[in-house]
Write a structure and sequence with these properties.
Length: 757
């Protein structure tokens, strides 16, 4: 246990004398630890503060500014502190007021730049400043339309994000496609199309005399570069700069900062490369990591005393970073907890996702019963699409919650639209839907397909992926609802399902003032709670499936590190082996916990990040099935663990080569077989198996037998017909009996694992 420092050391609370503000400059330094004091007294830049999570970086830099003001070294009007969010800027201003440093400007990059642009525009350009475009998505939609593209609402957000990324990384429209390829970035659609939309968007802005938020930075930087006398005026006004969260600056923000500071300014930057989690927006830690190179005379201070988390939480955080690789990992900070000992992190493996959510909710209830406030508890997940099952589990126990960084599940636009479509379909009757049988989940999929929903997730990340995950959750709810209705004999029809959705939505509309926080890991950055539950920690989710490169994998590790370091005392980490109750237990825990959680070995290479059997192989052996050996993606070569991926023999987000016409012929043939044999269509072949056949049409029985889901009995029963279809021929008549031993052909064809169930 580390020794506790005197009372005011909690970095969440600014120090003030009993009567209010500190009595003098020396009083500002009271209560700071040696490293914080070194920051506060380094009044002449350049200064670089490497500050680990929970080490009191805001405390250190606000006391530095206040000490400079109170000692007479700084004039408040000559100090500019910039950060990235209005909330952080407001907190900084509040602390500075309490420390007696009124008059210091604490602003976001955009706010500071906009003030300067409005002041200097009449002199530098003439006339009034162009109107600021508050929401660019409508103009992006118009630009897409002029390019002849039909774009859904969620795709517009992704297009807007690509334009913003391009502008903060200073990429012009004609260079977008090349820049995306060089960066290895997953574009939400064809790069040439995005380039055209970007170019038309910029032209529309010029035609209408409007600018966007990125233009505020671009234009301010351009004025300072082109008009030296204006740049000198700014540099005469602000002599002392502080930049918080410096690991998150973009090339455009650094360009503006270079114009602000000039050669003689006093610059202090603070950040932590291990908390770089926004590279997809253009943020880069390169400027933080290269600060000493650009400023050889810089004062360097490391803050490693962690006042937030217990030694047990800090030990896990340090362990995560000890396995990291890359440039950021070379500058990792070894945190030292200053708190008393606490409980060990809890690692829990669940059979399925609903069990994980229910178990998490019950543990939260136990904490509430022990006196922990609901607002001091958080459930953190990788994507917003994971929230619904936790919303429901908390609602089932009557526990209040608040969703941060996203709409409530039932208030999301895609869910509201889906609800209206499902109600309409329920009124019209299930017989109006083009599905192979009365299966409720198939009916729901058919309704959602009218708005572009597909069985397989879209490639890449972003709003389109989140929309898909939200709609996929509705399909899973249909599967679980149907399974729950069968034992009591009542029919799980579409009308009953819609009524269930309405009831769930009503139960979750209670006000959540003092509620458990549900948030994505990205939305949790900068926050902290007494108790944190990190959920869904399986391969494919952490790291996320579309994280392919080494640097993308390392950013996922840093994201988990951010999640761990949000916890002050109680930390729970959990994962589920299957998606749904009774499903195939093929998931494995995240590689990032190898060697850290009890019973796990150290990482030994390979994408799965572990040696020996994978969870999928162990599950196959437990089910008494033959071990087919590892299945690798035929596109990128990585080992596959998810059932659908193994069946397709490719990653879900790797390019598909499916013969659409062959796939439709196979589906028609399957429907005929199912009707003639009085079987559900999925018992003949699942959609995933048909997709795998259509993506790589086999030429003979041996090749067909290699496709997961085609066992010996199905090969004997249907092989000749399938091969005929693959050759473009009409298959011979079907047999009239179901295939014997169908259940032994492989769990991939079982109803609970079928994409159609």
């Amino acid at each position: 246990m580390q020794a506790q420092l005197p009372g005011p050391d909690d970095p969440r609370e600014p120090y003030a004398a009993p009567g209010g503000r500190p009595a003098d400059a020396d009083a500002v330094l009271a209560g700071l630890d040696p490293e914080q004091r070194a920051v506060a007294t380094a009044l002449h830049g350049p200064v670089c503060v490497l500050a680990g999570a929970g080490t009191g970086k805001t405390r250190a830099i606000t006391h530095r500014i206040a000490y400079g003001v109170r000692s007479g070294v700084y004039r408040p009007q000559q100090v500019l502190a910039v950060t990235f969010t209005a909330r952080a800027a407001g907190e900084m201003r509040g602390r500075l007021r309490m420390l007696g440093a009124e008059g210091v400007q604490a602003r976001t990059f955009h706010s500071a730049a906009l003030r300067q642009l409005q002041y200097f525009w009449p002199r530098a350009v003439g006339g009034e400043v162009p109107r600021l475009l508050e929401r660019k998505v409508q103009l992006v939609a118009e630009a897409a339309g002029r390019c002849g593209l039909r774009v859904q609402r969620t795709e517009l957000r992704d297009l807007t994000g690509e334009i913003e990324w391009s502008k903060v990384t200073q990429i012009v429209p004609e260079d977008y496609a090349a820049a995306v390829a060089k960066a290895g970035r997953d574009a939400p659609r064809d790069a040439a199309e995005i380039s055209r939309v970007y170019g038309v968007y910029e032209q529309l802005k010029r035609d209408r005399g409007v600018i966007d938020f990125e233009d505020v930075l671009l234009l301010t930087a351009a004025i300072l570069e082109d008009r030296p006398e204006i740049a000198e005026q700014v540099r005469a006004q602000y002599l002392h700069f502080t930049v918080d969260e410096y690991q998150d600056v973009s090339p455009l923000q650094q360009r503006l900062l270079d114009q602000w500071t000039g050669p003689g300014a006093s610059l202090c930057v603070v950040g932590d490369a291990s908390q770089t989690i926004y590279s997809f927006t253009g943020a880069t830690p390169d400027y933080l990591l290269g600060f000493r190179t650009r400023h050889p005379d810089a004062t360097m201070v490391k803050l490693v005393r962690d006042y937030r988390s217990t030694p047990q939480v800090v030990q896990l955080a340090n362990g995560l970073l000890s396995q990291a690789r890359g440039q950021a990992a070379q500058h990792r900070l070894e945190l030292v907890s200053q708190r008393d000992t606490g409980p060990d992190p809890v690692y829990t493996e669940y059979a399925d996702e609903p069990a994980e959510a229910e178990g998490t909710a019950h543990r939260i209830k136990d904490l509430l019963d022990r006196g922990v406030r609901a607002s001091e508890i958080a459930v953190l997940f990788r994507t917003n699409g994971q929230s619904e099952v936790y919303e429901q589990a908390l609602a089932d126990l009557g526990l209040p919650y608040q969703l941060k960084g996203a709409e409530r599940f039932f208030e999301r636009p895609e869910i509201r639209e889906a609800g209206m479509l499902l109600r309409g379909a329920a009124r019209a009757g299930a017989d109006t839907l083009a599905v192979d049988g009365p299966d409720l989940a198939a009916q729901v999929r058919a309704v959602l397909a009218t708005r572009g929903f597909a069985p397989q997730p879209p490639a890449g990340s972003g709003a389109v992926r989140e929309r898909w995950e939200s709609l996929a959750a509705l399909v899973r709810l249909a599967e679980e609802f149907e399974a729950g209705r069968r034992p009591d004999g009542r029919e799980a029809d579409l009308g009953a399902y819609v009524a269930e959705l309405d009831a769930r939505a009503a139960a979750q509309h209670a006000p959540a003032v003092e509620g458990v926080t549900l948030a994505s890991l990205h939305a949790a950055k900068g926050l902290e709670w007494d108790a944190v539950f990190l959920v869904g920690l399986t391969e494919g989710m952490m790291p996320i499936t579309y994280a392919k490169t080494d640097e993308q994998i390392e950013e996922e590790r840093r994201l988990l590190y951010v999640g761990v370091t949000r916890a002050r005392e109680h930390l729970s980490l959990s994962w589920a082996l299957a998606r749904s109750p009774g499903g195939r237990a093929g998931r494995i825990p995240t590689r990032f916990l190898d060697g850290l959680r009890p019973g796990s070995g150290s990482r030994s290479g390979g994408r799965s990040g572990r040696g020996g059997r994978t969870g999928a192989e162990a599950g196959a052996e437990r089910a008494g099935r033959r071990n087919r050996g590892p299945v690798k993606c035929r596109v990128c070569g990585r080992p596959l663990t998810e059932a659908v991926e193994r069946k397709l023999r490719r990653c879900e987000d790797c390019p598909s080569s499916m013969d659409e016409a062959l796939f439709e012929r196979l589906r028609e043939w399957r429907s005929e077989q199912a009707r003639s044999l009085s079987l559900p269509a999925y018992v003949v072949f699942t959609d995933a198996t048909l997709m795998a056949i259509a993506e790589d049409p086999p030429g003979d029985e041996q090749a067909l037998a290699q496709i997961p889901g085609v066992g010996p009995s199905k090969l004997d029963k249907y092989g000749a017909a399938v091969l005929s279809l693959c050759r473009g021929e009409q298959p011979l008549g079907a047999e009239s009996e179901p295939p014997s031993g169908a259940a032994e052909d492989g769990a991939d064809d079982s109803p609970e694992n079928s994409p159609e169930k």
